[in-house]
Amino acid sequence: MSLDSRPSRLVAVMAHPDDTEMLVGGTLFHLKDLDWELGIITMTAGDCGSATVAREEIARIRYAEAQDAAGYLGARYACVGLMDVEVTFNATNLRRVVDVIRRFDPDVVITHSPADYMLDHEEASRLARGAAFALAMSNYETRQNPPSPHGRATPALYYADPIEGKDPMGRRIYPQFYVDINEALTRKREMLSRHVSQREWLRSHHGIDEYLDRMTAWAAGYGSECGFAYAEGFRQHLGHGYPHEPILQDALRGLVHVRDEGRKSDVES
Ligand SMILES: [Zn+2]
């Protein structure tokens, strides 16, 4: 429970539809089991996620798939409305992101790793970090019509693992802690499978169920680093001005493996 005894709230702020499912879906199911209120925000509706369907049509399809997947988790979904490959940190986009996150008034925000394979992910991470800082600032006006009310407090900020656990130079970025998602893996796979257009696209390309199996292989790889069958990794943003309390780690105690203190968030060269 949060301070005012309402259920704790978490919002995942990611670039594209399916990023949340891929990176943190198992952890979100555990939090749902603990009665947390969950939200998923994507920067785009995935308008470049097809080689055969026009932009507007695939964006419409993927928006519906993202809503369906969020519904399966029991989360609210919102899209900021930016375009694929053009997710960019600037004042106009920051105002839009702040306004959408304010609708959720979260205690915890999870976003992409600051270093990831794709710029959309890195810029979404910057937007989420900047937005989290500004959420509770009453003087920060988002200039939307009508604007969402400002938040009550700066939320705790966490970073998911980058895709494949690697930075853009292919170096492993280790998490501060892992979450055991063995009990949630079946639900995570089902949630990801709701992104039918993406699953079928890869299946037609590869002839195998690459979409679900790749996610499962990544989760097994992270698990092999910490003694879990399947895991997701996280780092907490510990800069000045953000909550330092280990809110997620405490909520998920019993499912968390913390890496050795001396190797926190280290990068393998
Ligand atoms: Zn993505």
Structure overview:
The relative contact order is 0.17. The chain is built from eight helices and eight strands. The model has no long low-confidence stretch (mean pLDDT 94). The N and C termini lie far apart (40 Å). The chain has 269 residues and is of the alpha/beta class. The chain is globular. An eight-stranded mixed sheet has the order 3-2-1-4-5-7-6-8, sandwiched between helices. The protein has helices at 19-33, 55-73, 91-102, 119-134, 185-193, 196-206, 210-224, 247-251; strands at residues 9-14, 37-44, 76-82, 108-111, 156-160, 177-180, 231-236, 256-258. Bound molecules: zinc ion (ZN). Zinc ion is lined by residues 15-16, 19, 121. Zinc ion binds next to loops.
Entry keywords:
globular; 38% helix; binds zinc ion; 8 helices; alpha/beta; single chain; eight-stranded mixed β-sheet
Number of helices: 8
What structural category characterises the helix and strand content?
A: alpha/beta
Percent range of helical residues: 25-40%
Morphology: globular
The total count of strands amounts to 8
The unique ligands bound to this protein are: zinc ion
Read across the widest sheet, the strand sequence of neighbours is 3-2-1-4-5-7-6-8
What are the low-pLDDT stretches, counting only 5+ consecutive residues below 50?
none
- Radius of gyration, CA atoms, in whole angstroms: 17 Å
Cα separation of the termini: 40 Å
Helix and strand string, N-terminal first? EHEHEHEHEEHHHEHE
Mean pLDDT: 94
Quick description:
The chain has 269 residues and is an alpha/beta fold. Helix content is 38%, strand content 16%.
